[in-house]
Known about the structure:
This protein is mainly alpha-helical.
Amino acid sequence: MLSKIFDSSKKIADKSKGMVEIIKIRSTIDKIDTEAMKRKTELGALTFRLFCEGNLKAEDNDIIKLCALIQTLVSEIDVLNNQIASIQVRGICPACNSQNEADTRFCAQCGKEMPAYSSGGGNGKNRCPKCCFDNQPEDTFCGRCGISLPKSV
């Protein structure tokens, strides 16, 4: 009984760790995206002003600097989105707690069937009716948008 409680708490801790990491990364993405939007607004205002003044030239250094900054910020967002994707593809085996790819049918370490496949019916996922995120069958709230999920049958 005690080992089941320990195993359950370890599973919850592992899942929570990944979710916290994703939240931190998404927060960083939001900050970078806000900064990129500010720079895009500056770029638009500068470009329009130069256009109105008849001074728009391709070699204009201010435009080149802003475009380079925006390009750097977009690249940072891509890297962070890839980090989120790498976290989300991990599946934790309920039997041995090893990490597996999310769509793995059987655990690569112990061979037990993964929960997404053993739940029976459909793809084993609990799809959110609001945002279409595929939650685990036992989840009661959506991992992406937070709404209460309908009970699985």
